[in-house]
């Protein structure tokens, strides 16, 4: 299949030369960019799309999410709470999770992400209630394949229940043997390490307060044996730091060093409560910056510029939909930019640098060099933006406009792996209304069931 994006007004490549191209074409053949240039001539078998007055960029790469939370937004019992009480309250609803809910929660998240310019996403699924199937990651992978999203599934885990000093209740944790066995199963069955892979697996013990030290060690041994990446939450709140000091006698970064979770194959979510020395020790690792979640849960502000200056790979992510409460990548970029300037003032990241974190930066955090850049031979993951609206009138720099202006976050077109999956802000692969109706019913039934059983 071939596709010509004709006469694109501006192409932001994020290549090594930092090229920004005016009035050029992009020719896509199969799943990759064949060429970029002016007045590319093609035969009649190539579909041509007029992109006059549109801006093209690589798709956003979302590096931290919890898809199932799409069904648990705006629950009254957990509003206006910080992380630990928020989690304790939500575990009581999440314990009813089932395969159908995981599947539709993923479809909701994928739909939101694709419509707001994201072409690659990971998910951190760590919740496996005792009374349901353990093959919940399989449901997410099925949803990704149906909708057309490039997907990095992480086999999350919780092994440290409340009876053993952890935060989660015992009915949502698993034994370490079960976790490690399923981790290896998923890697063997689904992990595709080829170029332009649509499906990868990583291992992701949830957090220092919900897994044992031994599980962190055994997970990194398995991951490195199998050649997959590692992910976890780190230094999100002061409560987490206090927990680690009380449980292990170490702060979170010290604990990661002890269990050998430092390196280019590791990325962490949040990384807010770290000092200058700890930041230096994270050099080479990746970080998922989750601005909306950090603001809503009052967790703090990630030291984004300091991390970049220290050689840490920085990306932008939406986090779970129960703490955001959306999967809107375009809006997350805006908030990342504003939070960075709130913290660093005039020394903050400019619009180009923030957008680079959300595209090429995310690719680098996930260990990929085939996405996140628009150039010959890279994956055809391309998003087209229409800035021809009164909300952008008078803006003299389209990159600044993309980050700070606008009344909508719905993109003109999203192309993943050479296929159009969003057109004019609407999903092109599945029926959005059907997803909405089914997901809403599942969500209402789950929450209603928990509330009724409390009475």
From TrEMBL:
Record carries keyword Iron-sulfur: no
Protein name: 8-oxoguanine deaminase
Residues in Amidohydrolase-related domain copies: 56-421
Transcription recorded as keyword: no
Domain of life of the organism encoding this protein: Bacteria
SUPFAM superfamilies for this protein: Composite domain of metallo-dependent hydrolases, Metallo-dependent hydrolases
Keywords: Hydrolase
Source organism per UniProt: Clostridium oceanicum
Pfam families from the UniProt entry: Amidohydro_1 (PF01979)
